[in-house]
Amino acid sequence: MKKLLMTFSTIILASCSAEKTLDQKLQDVDQIFAPYNSSELPGAALMIIQDGKVILQKGYGMADLEQGRAVSPATNFRLASVTKQFTAMSILQLIERGDLSLETSLTDIFPEFPDYGRSITIKNLLQHTSGLLDYESMVPSDQSEQLKDKDVLQLMMGTDEVYFAVGEKHQYSNTAYAVLTQILEKITAVPFRDYLAANIFKPLAMDHTLAHEKGINEVSNRAYGYTIEETGVVRTDQSLFSAVLGDGGIYSNLEDLYKWDQALYTEKLLSKKYLDMAFTNGTTNDGKLMDYGFGWRLEKYKGLEIIYHTGSSIGFRNILYRIPSRNFTAVILTNRDDGGEFSTLTTVHKVVDIFF
To answer: Phi, psi at residue 191, to the nearest 5°?
Structure first.
């Protein structure tokens, strides 16, 4: 009898520890996003890619509450700082072509730039070690017109201050990525939006992705940003800084981001040499590693090497999270001004926990 009980217990334990099926895992993921699944609230778009195949691609909640339009895999969200990986890709393409180098300085590009720009290089801008001031803190209190990337450059040219000596610290800088677009435009004589279209979006057939400039192009099937307040839901789609492109101005959707993710396993846009550099931790002057490459955040989670970037701006919280060693990617796009910069990182960890 005792032996029979032991055998029965072993069977139960084995059953409890059995690997869940893919359908079960996807059901568990679906439960994580249940709070977004409302016809009365702004929503989310979720995609999971495994071994090159989309195993889940789904919209939850509403893209446009006023028009009653639901989120779908084709809904275009403002990517916010997920944009930075595209800005970095553009600059690395110019470096690979020989138009720039990582050691090119701001004064090499803009001779009229203040003297402090002599020591700030492309590499410093890409890795957030430039010390440039935060442009948002420099805008006059009575500013009513949205800033553009060129305005950010002018603000930097109008000061001789920095936060710290070049390379001394890693301090996240939206300013740096706005300045990078102006470097690209100076070198190529092409607007940043058009460079992206010709050199990244068109080659990958990302037909619905663009760097949005009001009055110049339009975002189709657009998700608008909202804030959920005690008194109701308020549209909070744009701020004074939402027209700056290099740090956060690209709109895209799940279908196009699948193409982008898969291209990063290839050399279609950039050689492996520079892709590897983009995905490698930088260091400060004292040799300390930073959790950042060129336009990508880096972390270890569950012993896995992760390449990702969050995106947080008024009305939006996003993440593109890649585990190349497992050929696994999760993308979360939301049009809610809910939680901090890394709120989507917490959510994506819950997704990863289900699979690994």
So the answer is: -55, 145
What are the beta bridge partners of residue 330? 48, 321
Neighbours of 231 (CB within 10 A): 6
**Which residue reads 């201050």 in tokens?**
161
Task: For domain 22-355, give the CATH number.
Answer: 3.40.710.10
| Percentage of residues in the chain having pLDDT higher than 90 | 93
The total of other beta-carbon atoms located within 10 Å of residue 37's CB is 16
Q: Which of 97, 80, 158, 95 is nearest to 125 (CA)?
A: 95
Nearest CA to 117 among 164, 157, 170?
Answer: 157
pLDDT score of 339 more than 60: yes
Q: How many CB atoms lie within 10 A of CB 164?
A: 12
Is residue 8 pLDDT above 80, yes or no? no
Mean pLDDT of the chain: 95
Phi-psi region of 351 (alpha: psi -120 to 50; beta: other; left: phi over 0): alpha
- pTM score over 0.70: yes
Confidence of residue 19 (pLDDT cuts 50, 70, 90): confident
Instruction: In whole angstroms, give the CA distance from residue 156 to residue 115.
Output: 11
DSSP label at 304?
E
DSSP 190-240: S-HHHHHIIIIITTTT-TT-EE--TTT---SSBPPPEEEETTEEEE----T
**Number of other residues whose CB lies within 10 A of the CB of residue 211:** 26
Tokens standing for residue 270: 């950039």
Beta bridge partners, 317, equal 312, 334
